[in-house]
Amino acid sequence: MSLAAAGVPVRVLEKKTDPGAKLHTTGLLVRDVVDGVDWLSETPPDIVRRIDGVRLYAPDMHSVELVAPGYYFLATDTPQLMRWMTDRCRRLGGEVQLGATYTRARRDDDGFEIDGFGRTSFLVGADGPRSRVARDLGLGENRRFLFGIEHEYAGAQIAEPHLLHCFIDHRLAPGYIGWAVRGVGQVQVGLARRADAPGVAKEAMAAFLTKIAPVIDLRDVHPSHIRAGLIPCGGVVSPVAAERVLLVGDSAGMVSPVTAGGIHTALKHGQAAGRAIADFAAGKRADPSRWFTQTYPKFRAKRALRWAFDHFQNDLTFNLLLGSPPMRAAARLIFFHRARG
Ligand SMILES: Cc1cc2nc3c(=O)[nH]c(=O)nc-3n(C[C@H](O)[C@H](O)[C@H](O)COP(=O)(O)OP(=O)(O)OC[C@H]3O[C@@H](n4cnc5c(N)ncnc54)[C@H](O)[C@@H]3O)c2cc1C
């Protein structure tokens, strides 16, 4: 969008025919993304819903409420948000080609010839956790993943709809958490866990719905959608760029290894990459592949935290310490961080 806004001819290839179809995300936006990505302030108000804080449940289901002054999340009608973003990009002059799958690019002296789509002087791979662009052009690929699964219940209600409900449970969600949130017109319940054998997450999800039934009971409601997907959790891939090509978003591995949130970084660095490429196109700056990716998050502290969580996650500790001041402080830091590396 920032390329289109700068008047640079840009073409987006999207393999889906509907940008709002087959999404694999809860679609929660952290406050930082609202602050950092200017066009989000124009989002139609009926496709977002404010969530003021978090209720965090220990494995034994006792809980604490966490809020931070001025901080909030936005739940989104993500399919509509994706369609709105597509329209906005088009209105700015960008060409969004739907049903268009990138398969291969051939490098030449000043850019690439993209199979089936013509020439480009700069290529951005924003094609998700298993990036075809990265594989095709010999860039780094994600190797470590969480697996997320989510049920959507249209029209359902939950108690405390102004909170994001998060559940710690080493057995059902090893390496991450489960969650429930009242989104825009539906309730979304999901969990993420270290990627393991297919089918295990599905069983864990059934057990999770039973476990949370005393506070959120959706066992007799049929999910209107079920979505699932991989979440990169190994940090930014290497190399993340080569001459006239760079990766952003999940393809670059820029997902917080702790919160598993990747929308904020994808939008923030996608926007900045567009501006850097526009400057390159105007002859004002060098090829962004040489300098721009140094601005990417390093996630050093978060990768250390992930390592600790992977090796020492222990339900008894959370049962004992959840309400304690150090645990509350740590949880606040994780949920209400200013989302840096
Ligand atoms: C269950 C689950 C819940 C999540 N919840 C949250 C959350 O609430 N908040 C948050 O911040 N993060 C969340 N995440 C992570 C977040 O969804 C991702 O980090 C984010 O979607 C990354 O955006 P992206 O544009 O880089 O990649 P994607 O969203 O994967 O988009 C890539 C796009 O590229 C297209 N594509 C792929 N290959 C090709 C090709 N060869 N040619 C053309 N097009 C192609 C795809 O169709 C897709 O539209 C969640 C992840 C999961 C799995």
Could you name the key traits of this structure?
globular; 341 residues; 24% strand
Number of strands: 18
Structural class: alpha+beta
Largest sheet: 7 strands, mixed
Portion of residues in beta strands equals: 15-25%
Write out the strand line-up for the largest beta sheet, numbering strands in chain order. Answer: 5-4-13-14-15-12-16
Give the radius of gyration: 20 Å
Binned, the helix content reads: 25-40%
* Element-by-element helix/strand order: HEEHEEEEHEEEEEHEEEEHEEEHHHH
Structure ligands: flavin-adenine dinucleotide
Shape: globular
Verbal overview:
The protein has 341 residues and is of the alpha+beta class. The protein contains nine helices and 18 strands. It is globular, with a radius of gyration of 20 Å. Helix content is 27%, strand content 24%. The strands form five sheets. The chain has a seven-stranded mixed β-sheet, with helices on both faces. The protein has a three-stranded antiparallel β-sheet with strand order 2-6-3. It has helices at 2-5, 31-36, 78-91, 132-136, 200-211, 263-281, 300-312, 315-321, 325-335; strands spanning 11-14, 29-30, 48-51, 53-57, 63-66, 73-76, 95-98, 105-108, 111-114, 118-120, 123-125, 145-154, 163-167, 178-182, 186-194, 225-232, 241-242, 245-247. Strand 14 (178-182) and strand 15 (186-194) form a beta hairpin. The two termini are 24 Å apart. It binds flavin-adenine dinucleotide. Residues 13-16, 24-28, 101-102, 126-128, 132, 148, 150, 190, 229, 231, 249-251, 255, 260-264, 266 line the site of flavin-adenine dinucleotide.
